[in-house]
Amino acid sequence: TQLLEQSPQFLSIQEGENLTVYCNSSSVFSSLQWDRQEPGEGPVLLVTVVTGGEVKKLKRLTFQFGDARKDSSLHITAAQPGDTGLYLCVSGGTSYGKLTFGQGTILTVHP
Amino acid sequence: DSGVTQTPKHLITATGQRVTLRCSPRSGDLSVYWYQQSLDQGLQFLIQYYNGEERAKGNILERFSAQQFPDLHSELNLSSLELGDSALYFCASSVTGMGTEAFFGQGTRLTVV
Fold it and tell me: Distance from B45 to chain A by nearest Cα, in Å?
């Protein structure tokens, strides 16, 4: 069973700071997605990475997929209070079954 | 908007009752997952369907059942409800059900009183 280790679990920073969240797997990802979930809402897909070494940018968010496809990172530049939320790395696996979630990173950006 | 539609958004019912939650996947997605999220907890996998057939089962109680219909929408039936069943119920859909990105609905908040 694939395990996803996500770190850090909590991040509390000031507006304007940069941050990085990491997601590491015990096995090769077939694909990996990053989601953001706000309280009482469903996770919202931010990006999916598939190819080793891939880098995707979404405004101030940069997503990297490791060359070996066993790790990924999410970097936020100049964080804003609107970035506050729970960030999840999610893997669909290589067979039918549940999605595998990282433990989540609760990000709080203070004005 | 993820393209996944869940109804109703909110449901309040009494203990012992039965409810049905509905999920319409994104157009073209053949697989539907159901998840339960209790207060301050992670997403607990209940069940997965692909093209009408059950593909994987998680910690789904015997009082709960689900199905996916020919038009690919899915329903989660919860019976003999208990207070502890109060939670957010999410469905997600994906194209193949393995190795591809999944999109979540907005959830149904079930409150059992």
Answer: 6
Collapsed DSSP state (helix, strand, coil) of residue A67: coil
Cβ count near A103 (within 10 Å): 15
Q: What percent of chain A has pLDDT over 90?
A: 68
CA distance A20 to chain B (A): 21
Go through A54-84 and write b for each residue having 16 or more CB atoms within 10 A of its CB, e for each that does not. bebeeeebbbbbbeebbbbbbbbeebeeebb
Q: Which residues of chain A does B99 touch, with a Cβ-Cβ cutoff of 8 Å? A: 30-31, 92-94
Contact B102 A90 (CB under 8 A): yes
* A27–chain B Cβ distance below 8 A for any pair: no
Q: What pLDDT shows up at residue A29?
A: 79
Query: What local confidence, expressed as pLDDT, does residue A92 receive?
Result: 79
φ and ψ at residue A6, rounded to 5 degrees: -115, 140
Looking at residue B96, its pLDDT comes to 84
**Counting every residue, how long is chain B?**
113
The answer to whether the Cβ–Cβ distance between A101 and B42 falls below 8 Å is: yes
pLDDT in tens, B77-93: 999 999 999 999 999 99
